Protein backbone atom coordinates (compact mmCIF):
# COMPACT_ATOMS: atom_id res chain seq x y z
CA UNK A 1 0.00 0.00 0.00
CA UNK A 2 2.86 2.38 0.74
CA UNK A 3 4.18 1.82 -2.78
CA UNK A 4 0.90 3.14 -4.22
CA UNK A 5 0.79 6.08 -1.83
CA UNK A 6 4.33 7.06 -2.81
CA UNK A 7 3.47 6.73 -6.51
CA UNK A 8 0.50 9.09 -6.10
CA UNK A 9 2.34 11.57 -3.89
CA UNK A 10 5.19 11.73 -6.44
CA UNK A 11 2.64 12.26 -9.22
CA UNK A 12 0.97 15.15 -7.34
CA UNK A 13 4.35 16.80 -6.74
CA UNK A 14 5.27 16.37 -10.40
CA UNK A 15 1.99 17.94 -11.54
CA UNK A 16 2.56 20.93 -9.26
CA UNK A 17 6.14 21.34 -10.50
CA UNK A 18 5.26 20.84 -14.17
CA UNK A 19 7.50 17.76 -14.43
CA UNK A 20 5.89 16.03 -17.41
CA UNK A 21 8.17 12.96 -17.44
CA UNK A 22 7.27 12.09 -13.86
CA UNK A 23 3.59 12.83 -14.47
CA UNK A 24 3.60 10.27 -17.30
CA UNK A 25 5.63 7.68 -15.42
CA UNK A 26 3.71 4.69 -14.01
CA UNK A 27 0.82 5.21 -16.45
CA UNK A 28 -0.29 2.48 -18.83
CA UNK A 29 0.08 2.98 -22.60
CA UNK A 30 -3.70 2.55 -22.94
CA UNK A 31 -4.59 4.81 -20.00
CA UNK A 32 -8.17 6.13 -19.96
CA UNK A 33 -8.67 9.47 -18.20
CA UNK A 34 -12.00 11.16 -17.49
CA UNK A 35 -10.90 14.78 -17.11
CA UNK A 36 -12.71 17.95 -16.04
CA UNK A 37 -12.78 19.38 -19.62
CA UNK A 38 -14.15 17.47 -22.62
CA UNK A 39 -14.03 15.11 -24.44
CA UNK A 40 -16.89 13.52 -22.56
CA UNK A 41 -15.87 9.98 -23.51
CA UNK A 42 -12.44 10.51 -21.96
CA UNK A 43 -8.82 10.88 -23.00
CA UNK A 44 -7.50 7.55 -24.28
CA UNK A 45 -3.89 6.49 -24.67
CA UNK A 46 -0.66 7.89 -23.27
CA UNK A 47 -0.11 10.33 -26.17
CA UNK A 48 -3.54 11.89 -25.67
CA UNK A 49 -2.94 11.95 -21.90
CA UNK A 50 0.39 13.73 -22.44
CA UNK A 51 -1.26 16.42 -24.57
CA UNK A 52 -3.60 17.49 -21.75
CA UNK A 53 -0.83 18.69 -19.41
CA UNK A 54 1.00 21.66 -21.07
CA UNK A 55 -2.06 23.92 -20.82
CA UNK A 56 -2.60 22.91 -17.21
CA UNK A 57 1.03 23.64 -16.35
CA UNK A 58 0.66 27.09 -17.96
CA UNK A 59 -2.40 27.77 -15.81
CA UNK A 60 -0.52 26.68 -12.69
CA UNK A 61 2.24 29.17 -13.44
CA UNK A 62 -0.37 31.91 -12.93
CA UNK A 63 -0.26 31.07 -9.23
CA UNK A 64 -2.56 28.05 -8.88
CA UNK A 65 -1.97 25.30 -6.33
CA UNK A 66 -2.19 21.53 -6.70
CA UNK A 67 -1.85 19.94 -3.28
CA UNK A 68 -2.90 16.57 -1.88
CA UNK A 69 -5.30 16.98 1.03
CA UNK A 70 -6.49 13.42 1.66
CA UNK A 71 -5.73 10.02 0.16
CA UNK A 72 -7.21 6.57 0.67
CA UNK A 73 -5.87 3.39 -0.98
CA UNK A 74 -7.55 -0.01 -1.29
CA UNK A 75 -5.14 -2.69 -2.50
CA UNK A 76 -5.67 -6.23 -3.78
CA UNK A 77 -3.10 -8.70 -5.08
CA UNK A 78 -3.09 -7.39 -8.67
CA UNK A 79 -5.67 -4.58 -8.71
CA UNK A 80 -6.04 -1.48 -6.53
CA UNK A 81 -7.85 1.81 -6.46
CA UNK A 82 -7.30 5.09 -4.69
CA UNK A 83 -9.39 8.18 -4.11
CA UNK A 84 -8.23 11.60 -3.03
CA UNK A 85 -9.17 15.23 -2.55
CA UNK A 86 -6.81 17.98 -3.69
CA UNK A 87 -6.58 21.72 -3.33
CA UNK A 88 -6.63 22.87 -6.94
CA UNK A 89 -7.23 26.50 -7.82
CA UNK A 90 -5.92 30.02 -7.81
CA UNK A 91 -5.79 32.07 -4.62
CA UNK A 92 -8.86 34.04 -5.71
CA UNK A 93 -10.85 30.90 -6.55
CA UNK A 94 -10.07 29.32 -3.19
CA UNK A 95 -10.83 32.56 -1.36
CA UNK A 96 -14.20 32.80 -3.09
CA UNK A 97 -14.97 29.13 -2.45
CA UNK A 98 -12.84 27.72 0.40
CA UNK A 99 -14.54 24.33 0.09
CA UNK A 100 -13.43 23.90 -3.54
CA UNK A 101 -11.67 20.54 -4.02
CA UNK A 102 -10.60 18.48 -7.00
CA UNK A 103 -11.81 14.89 -6.68
CA UNK A 104 -9.46 12.17 -7.94
CA UNK A 105 -9.97 8.44 -8.43
CA UNK A 106 -7.23 6.14 -9.74
CA UNK A 107 -7.46 2.53 -10.89
CA UNK A 108 -4.19 0.59 -10.77
CA UNK A 109 -2.99 -2.79 -11.96
CA UNK A 110 0.14 -4.66 -10.94
CA UNK A 111 2.16 -5.51 -14.06
CA UNK A 112 5.75 -6.69 -14.25
CA UNK A 113 6.16 -6.39 -10.50
CA UNK A 114 5.05 -2.75 -10.21
CA UNK A 115 1.88 -0.77 -9.99
CA UNK A 116 0.61 1.01 -13.13
CA UNK A 117 -2.23 3.56 -13.38
CA UNK A 118 -4.74 2.28 -15.94
CA UNK A 119 -7.58 4.69 -15.20
CA UNK A 120 -7.69 8.25 -13.86
CA UNK A 121 -10.77 10.35 -13.12
CA UNK A 122 -10.74 14.06 -12.17
CA UNK A 123 -13.80 16.15 -11.33
CA UNK A 124 -15.11 19.14 -9.44
CA UNK A 125 -18.56 19.05 -7.85
CA UNK A 126 -21.19 20.42 -10.20
CA UNK A 127 -22.64 23.42 -8.38
CA UNK A 128 -25.03 24.70 -11.04
CA UNK A 129 -28.54 25.09 -9.64
CA UNK A 130 -31.34 23.38 -11.61
CA UNK A 131 -33.58 26.08 -13.18
CA UNK A 132 -36.73 24.98 -11.34
CA UNK A 133 -34.91 24.99 -8.00
CA UNK A 134 -33.34 28.38 -8.76
CA UNK A 135 -36.73 29.88 -9.63
CA UNK A 136 -38.25 28.64 -6.38
CA UNK A 137 -35.30 29.95 -4.35
CA UNK A 138 -35.37 33.39 -6.00
CA UNK A 139 -39.15 33.62 -5.56
CA UNK A 140 -38.75 32.71 -1.89
CA UNK A 141 -36.01 35.31 -1.48
CA UNK A 142 -38.26 38.02 -2.95
CA UNK A 143 -41.10 36.99 -0.65
CA UNK A 144 -38.68 37.35 2.26
CA UNK A 145 -37.95 40.89 1.09
CA UNK A 146 -41.67 41.60 1.51
CA UNK A 147 -41.64 40.36 5.10
CA UNK A 148 -38.40 42.20 5.92
CA UNK A 149 -39.70 45.44 4.40
CA UNK A 150 -42.85 45.24 6.49
CA UNK A 151 -40.68 44.58 9.56
CA UNK A 152 -38.35 47.47 8.58
CA UNK A 153 -35.43 45.09 9.13
CA UNK A 154 -32.69 46.84 7.15
CA UNK A 155 -29.93 44.36 8.06
CA UNK A 156 -32.04 41.41 6.87
CA UNK A 157 -32.94 43.27 3.66
CA UNK A 158 -29.25 43.65 2.85
CA UNK A 159 -28.25 40.01 3.47
CA UNK A 160 -28.74 38.84 -0.17
CA UNK A 161 -27.15 41.98 -1.66
CA UNK A 162 -23.67 41.48 -3.18
CA UNK A 163 -20.87 43.78 -2.05
CA UNK A 164 -20.27 44.85 -5.67
CA UNK A 165 -23.96 45.33 -6.57
CA UNK A 166 -24.85 47.95 -9.20
CA UNK A 167 -28.34 49.39 -8.87
CA UNK A 168 -30.03 51.68 -11.41
CA UNK A 169 -32.61 53.44 -9.25
CA UNK A 170 -35.17 56.04 -10.31
CA UNK A 171 -32.99 58.89 -9.09
CA UNK A 172 -29.55 57.64 -10.13
CA UNK A 173 -26.98 54.87 -10.21
CA UNK A 174 -25.68 53.34 -6.98
CA UNK A 175 -22.61 51.12 -6.81
CA UNK A 176 -21.78 48.91 -3.85
CA UNK A 177 -23.72 47.46 -0.95
CA UNK A 178 -23.24 50.47 1.34
CA UNK A 179 -24.71 52.83 -1.27
CA UNK A 180 -27.75 50.60 -1.83
CA UNK A 181 -28.17 50.27 1.92
CA UNK A 182 -28.54 54.05 2.19
CA UNK A 183 -31.23 54.01 -0.51
CA UNK A 184 -33.15 51.31 1.35
CA UNK A 185 -32.70 53.12 4.66
CA UNK A 186 -34.09 56.34 3.19
CA UNK A 187 -37.10 54.46 1.83
CA UNK A 188 -37.87 52.85 5.18
CA UNK A 189 -37.52 56.18 6.98
CA UNK A 190 -39.62 58.12 4.45
CA UNK A 191 -42.87 57.34 6.29
CA UNK A 192 -44.11 56.12 9.62
CA UNK A 193 -46.93 54.23 7.91
CA UNK A 194 -46.65 50.45 7.37
CA UNK A 195 -44.71 49.66 4.16
CA UNK A 196 -45.09 46.64 1.91
CA UNK A 197 -43.00 45.61 -1.09
CA UNK A 198 -44.39 42.95 -3.46
CA UNK A 199 -43.59 41.56 -6.92
CA UNK A 200 -46.82 39.71 -7.80
CA UNK A 201 -46.10 39.13 -11.49
CA UNK A 202 -42.39 38.31 -11.37
CA UNK A 203 -40.91 36.10 -14.12
CA UNK A 204 -37.70 34.22 -13.39
CA UNK A 205 -35.30 32.49 -15.75
CA UNK A 206 -32.15 30.72 -14.57
CA UNK A 207 -29.19 28.83 -15.97
CA UNK A 208 -26.19 27.55 -14.05
CA UNK A 209 -25.36 30.04 -11.33
CA UNK A 210 -27.14 33.05 -12.85
CA UNK A 211 -30.79 34.04 -12.65
CA UNK A 212 -32.79 37.00 -13.97
CA UNK A 213 -36.10 38.15 -12.51
CA UNK A 214 -38.32 40.82 -14.03
CA UNK A 215 -41.77 42.22 -13.39
CA UNK A 216 -43.39 45.07 -11.49
CA UNK A 217 -42.60 46.21 -7.97
CA UNK A 218 -45.49 47.45 -5.87
CA UNK A 219 -44.51 49.68 -2.96
CA UNK A 220 -47.40 50.53 -0.65
CA UNK A 221 -47.46 52.81 2.38
CA UNK A 222 -50.93 53.29 3.89
CA UNK A 223 -53.21 54.06 0.92
CA UNK A 224 -50.43 55.21 -1.43
CA UNK A 225 -49.09 52.66 -3.93
CA UNK A 226 -46.25 53.13 -6.43
CA UNK A 227 -45.47 50.71 -9.25
CA UNK A 228 -42.08 50.34 -10.92
CA UNK A 229 -40.71 48.15 -13.66
CA UNK A 230 -37.87 46.01 -12.32
CA UNK A 231 -35.14 43.76 -13.65
CA UNK A 232 -32.84 41.91 -11.22
CA UNK A 233 -29.82 39.69 -11.79
CA UNK A 234 -28.74 37.15 -9.17
CA UNK A 235 -25.56 35.10 -8.82
CA UNK A 236 -25.44 31.87 -6.82
CA UNK A 237 -22.56 31.74 -4.32
CA UNK A 238 -21.56 29.23 -1.61
CA UNK A 239 -23.73 31.23 0.80
CA UNK A 240 -26.78 31.39 -1.49
CA UNK A 241 -28.24 33.75 -4.11
CA UNK A 242 -27.00 37.33 -4.16
CA UNK A 243 -28.35 40.32 -6.06
CA UNK A 244 -25.59 41.67 -8.31
CA UNK A 245 -27.63 44.12 -10.43
CA UNK A 246 -31.05 45.70 -10.46
CA UNK A 247 -32.72 48.18 -12.80
CA UNK A 248 -35.82 50.12 -11.79
CA UNK A 249 -37.80 52.51 -13.99
CA UNK A 250 -41.15 54.08 -14.73
CA UNK A 251 -42.48 54.81 -18.22
CA UNK A 252 -41.71 58.34 -19.38
CA UNK A 253 -44.36 60.83 -18.37
CA UNK A 254 -45.65 58.99 -15.30
UniProtKB/TrEMBL annotation:
<protein>
    <submittedName>
        <fullName>Ketosteroid isomerase-like protein</fullName>
    </submittedName>
</protein>
<dbReference type="InterPro" id="IPR032710">
    <property type="entry name" value="NTF2-like_dom_sf"/>
</dbReference>
<feature type="domain" description="SnoaL-like">
    <location>
        <begin position="138"/>
        <end position="251"/>
    </location>
</feature>
<dbReference type="GO" id="GO:0016853">
    <property type="term" value="F:isomerase activity"/>
</dbReference>
<keyword id="KW-0413">Isomerase</keyword>
<feature type="domain" description="SnoaL-like">
    <location>
        <begin position="4"/>
        <end position="125"/>
    </location>
</feature>
<dbReference type="Pfam" id="PF13474">
    <property type="entry name" value="SnoaL_3"/>
</dbReference>
<dbReference type="InterPro" id="IPR037401">
    <property type="entry name" value="SnoaL-like"/>
</dbReference>
